[in-house]
Design goal:
The complex is a heterotrimer of chains A (232), B (411) and C (260). Chain A is of the alpha/beta class and 232 residues long. Chain A has helices at residues 40-47, 90-101, 108-113, 129-141, 159-174, 186-192, 210-217, 222-230, and strands at 2-11, 14-24, 28-33, 55-60, 63-64, 75-78, 147-151, 178-182, 195-200, 203-209. Chain A has one domain (27-38, 71-230): P-loop containing nucleotide triphosphate hydrolases (Rossmann fold). By secondary structure, chain C is mainly α. The radius of gyration of chain C is 20 Å and the shape is globular. Classes of the chains: A alpha/beta (232), B mainly beta (411), C mainly alpha (260). Chains in contact: A-C, B-C.
């Protein structure tokens, strides 16, 4: 479904991604991990066409994504920082994104799930960070897309909402979708992910199942495996 | 009274010596030529010319008489010479359409030529396609009224002047319209004359042009769209009142050029949209009061030795430059005018601004030096340097200020 | 694109700053007309104000909006929409809302004072056209600056510098160079120089209305042809359009290869 071929990207002299290639085919939850500045977000943004790679290409369903935008109807994206036009209300932004995407959407169950009903007429500028993140989640999950990209989805969420989010992710997985996720919360990753892509110094250090990583590093949990990678 | 009795009385009166006769000229009349009529007429007779096309070449009139053209009476000079020459006192020419005088580079052929006469009246004639329109030399106590002189000139050498006077005295030029000639009205050595309510427009050179003409009065005339506006030179004791100078556009175009004018009065005139409202060059003791300067490029430009001129009670409104000087010397006064670009205040409510106004901008000095800089007019930077010059004058006359600028426009 | 335009426009039209801007023009218009009670004098004053102010507001708004809506832009970029559409939509959203503030803010006072019943309507429309053009030009230029500078403070500084350059420094340089080279024929130079600065260009549109008598006092044949006929107006408007088109193209081009 998604094939990444020899992607390179550097910002000035800083090389962020150096010749990265991999395939993601079957449904499941893929966690993109790595230390700060390892290029996780850059990679996701390349996938979404927001960052233009210096070399290499990304194939989505066999099609090169450069200079194309239609494939993004297949992707739901949850950005790291949830900021919207201050003067629009919640219901307006939901309508707007649905309108811009021109796709069928089902925001109502999600709104109910996160208890956003009472915020629907509030301006986005007046919402707290957590509430905004909930709106962000609604915007991502309200479309029926085969691929979902989540960049730090838990930021600012309360535990109740976090549980609901996990349910959403698991539901997506069980309906055969591909979920790409980055997170600093290792317990979450451990709980959810089927496969891990570990980026280190611009390269894929490891790609495989969580159990394989544990075996490779000889640790019992993910947190320690990663610590073992970073401080050998 | 029966018609027969009236005719009898008429003929009787005609026979009485000293009472003027009227001779009628028309195609079917016993006299069908104007030359013959003029020849046969006695002094003081009236010749009435009916509608029709008459060829009149260089016809000299040497007796006092009255020629009246009825509507449609056309005198055609056949492009040879003068059309009419008035060489005696007390001649009246009225109501004719006169055309096709000769053209010459050596002689000033005119539709109506007056020489050495008194009490001549040229009234309500229409002149077109002629070299000069009405040309008077050495005439006195005469009237040029209600005539229309039309030309189609586009270059100076194509045409003479509309109304041209040389060495005349006590002439009244009123209600005439002149256009498409070289100069509309031209006066040289003309004294004690009144020029009023004329409309001189679209002439190639000057709408009004006079030199060496003293004690004349110009009132209620309109000079519009002339190539070089109005030029007034080497004259004393002239009065110009309630005239309008409009839309005289061009490099060397003035609403009014005053060169070597002494002891004059320029009152209540309106200068609208001229490149130069008034260009004062070497003039002294002229009073300028209650004039309106509206949207001229330069309202007043002062050049050369100008002394003791007084500008007071004038309105300066919307001009690109109000006053322009080419030197730092100033001997003229500019007090009590209304300046639309004055931004001061009047706290003591006496109708006059509490801060003096400086009508000469630094930028006008720059434009004098480098004319192309005019494209920067009204730019923020220019406003800034003007302001700095206002605060501490370095290039413009520092004593040139209006101490009592009016807060209200004069009516 | 219409959708993007619609949303960023409706967002901006509800922002406090749009109201402040609108209010400013309303007050300016009414105060000027109240003090002068004369439409034509009001227009003359406004022309001087607008030539300097609309570029400044356009510059500040353009940069501010771009930096503030960066995350929102990212959200849009993740949607199945072409990049050029997003940027063009946002650009038009800002420019239109600013222009609308200008047009309504000045339109209402002048309507109240009977602009349609006076002979000044053509001048007033010219005023609004040049104000609108300047808004479109300077919003485009400032977004370009923002696109090339990720650093907010730097971008803001450059944008203000750009405004200062076009509003003051450029004219100062032109004036100085003209004085230095006054012995040479300068009329082509003067005209070309003013064509290369949109503020000067709009100023010339104003000069054509207010100072035609002075402009025709200069001898240059080019000047005479340019200012003496309607071609001056025509070329100025044409050039203003170019001044909108070129930064917009640059903006779209830059947006295509920009990383977010």
């Amino acid at each position: 479904m998604i094939a990444v071929k020899n992607i390179r990207k550097s910002y000035g002299r800083l090389t962020v991604l150096n010749d990265i290639s991999f395939d993601v085919s079957g449904g499941g939850i893929y966690a993109v991990l790595g230390p700060n500045g390892s290029g996780k977000t850059t990679f996701l943004k390349i996938l979404l066409g927001m960052v233009i790679p210096d070399g290499g290409k990304v194939l989505f369903q066999g099609q090169d994504i450069s200079r194309s935008h239609g494939y993004r109807t297949q992707i739901g994206y949850l950005p790291q920082i949830a900021r919207f036009p201050d003067n629009l209300s919640v219901s307006e932004i939901i309508h707007m994104i649905a309108d811009i995407r021109n796709q069928p959407s089902k925001p109502e169950p999600l709104i109910a799930l996160f208890g956003l009903d009472k915020f629907m007429d509030k301006k986005l500028g007046n919402l707290s960070g957590g509430t905004r993140q909930k709106v962000n989640i609604v915007l991502t999950f309200m479309f029926d897309t085969p691929v979902i990209v989540l960049d730090e989805p838990t930021a600012g969420l309360d535990p109740v909402s976090l549980i609901k989010l996990k349910e959403l992710i698991n539901t997506a997985k069980s309906s055969g979708k591909i979920v790409l996720i980055t997170s600093h919360i290792m317990s979450l990753v451990e709980e959810l992910s089927d496969e891990i892509i570990f980026l280190l110094e611009g390269d894929i250090y490891f790609k495989g199942a969580l159990s394989e990583l544990k075996i490779k590093t000889g640790s019992n949990d993910l947190e320690h495996s990663i610590a073992a990678i970073l401080e050998p | 009274m029966s018609t027969r009795a009236f005719m009898a009385l008429f003929w009787l009166m005609a026979w009485i010596p000293g009472i003027s006769t009227e001779i009628t000229v028309c195609d079917e009349c016993s006299i069908s030529s104007i030359a013959v009529a003029v020849e046969e007429a006695n002094a003081g007779d009236t010749i009435r010319v009916s509608a029709g096309h008459y060829t009149v070449e260089n016809l000299g009139i040497t007796k006092p008489m009255t020629l009246i053209g009825e509507p449609g009476a056309i005198l055609d000079g056949a492009n040879t010479s003068y059309v009419l020459r008035l060489l005696s006192d007390s001649i009246t020419i009225a109501g004719f359409e006169i055309t096709n005088s000769g053209r010459s580079y050596t002689k000033d052929y005119a539709a109506i030529y007056v020489y050495d006469s008194k009490m001549v009246q040229v009234i309500e004639n229409t002149v077109h396609d002629s070299f000069f329109g009405i040309l008077m030399e050495k005439a006195t106590q005469s009237v040029i009224r209600g005539n229309k002189v039309m030309g189609t000139a586009t270059r100076e050498d194509q045409s003479g002047n509309g109304i041209h006077l040389w060495h005349c005295e006590e002439i009244e030029i009123t209600n005439n319209e002149v256009f498409g000639m070289r100069d509309g009205i031209y006066l040289e050595f003309v004294d004690e004359s009144r020029i009023s309510r004329n409309y001189s427009h679209n002439n190639v050179r000057y709408g009004l042009h006079f030199m060496f003409s003293n004690h004349d009065t110009y009132t209620d005339n309109t000079f519009q769209h002339n190539g070089a506006g109005v030029a007034v030179m080497f004259s004393k004791w002239i009065r110009m009142e309630r005239n309008r100078f409009e839309e005289n556009w061009g490099t060397a175009s003035y609403g009014l050029l005053l060169k070597e004018i002494y002891d004059g009065e320029v009152l209540d005139n309106t200068f609208t949209e001229n490149t130069l409202g008034i260009f004062v060059d070497g003039s002294a003791r002229v009073n300028y009061s209650h004039n309106n300067f509206l949207q001229n490029g330069w309202a007043v430009k002062v050049s050369g030795g100008c002394y003791a001129n007084v500008f007071t009670g004038n309105n300066f409104i919307g001009n690109s430059f109000d006053i322009s000087y080419n030197s730092r010397m100033n001997d003229n006064t500019f007090n009590g005018n209304f300046w639309s670009s004055y931004s001061g205040y009047d706290l003591d409510k006496n109708g006059m601004g509490d801060v003096p106004y400086r009508p000469v901008k630094l930028f006008s000095y720059i434009v004098n030096r480098t004319p192309e800089t005019i494209v920067l007019l009204r730019s923020l930077f220019v406003d800034m340097i003007n302001f700095s010059e206002k605060v501490s004058p370095a290039f413009t006359p520092d004593d040139l200020i209006d101490d009592s600028p009016s807060m209200k426009r004069f009516k | 694109m219409i959708k993007i335009l619609k949303y960023s426009f409706s967002d901006l039209m509800r922002s406090r700053w749009s109201f402040i801007y609108l209010g400013f023009y309303l007050i300016l218009g009414f105060v000027l007309l109240f003090l002068n009670n004369d439409l034509s004098k009001g227009i003359i004053t406004l022309m001087n104000v607008i030539v300097v102010l609309t570029p400044m507001i356009g510059t500040i708004f353009g940069v501010m909006y771009f930096y503030n809506s960066r995350e929102f832009t990212e959200l849009l970029l993740a949607q199945p929409v072409k990049r050029s559409v997003i940027f063009l939509g946002q650009y038009l959203g800002i420019s239109l809302s600013l222009s609308l503030s200008l047009i309504i803010g000045l339109g209402l006072p002048f309507l109240a004072y009977g602009i349609f019943r006076s002979g000044e309507i053509a001048n007033f429309i010219m005023l609004l056209i040049s104000g609108t053009c300047l808004t479109f030009i300077f919003v485009a230029l400032s977004i370009n600056i923002a696109l090339f500078n990720s650093n907010k403070i730097k971008g803001f500084g450059y944008a203000i510098l750009m405004w200062l350059f076009f509003a003051v420094i450029y004219d100062a340089l032109i004036l100085l160079s003209m004085i230095v080279f006054e012995d040479y024929p300068l009329d082509n130079y003067a005209l070309v120089a003013s064509f290369l600065n949109p503020i000067d260009l709009s100023r010339i549109l104003i000069l054509l209305k207010l100072d035609i008598s002075a402009l025709l006092g200069y001898t240059g044949a080019l000047f005479q042809r340019f200012f003496g006929t309607s071609s001056g107006l025509l070329y100025s408007l044409l050039m203003l359009t170019c001044w909108v088109a070129i930064p917009v193209m640059l903006l779209l081009n830059r947006s295509r290869s920009k990383d977010f």
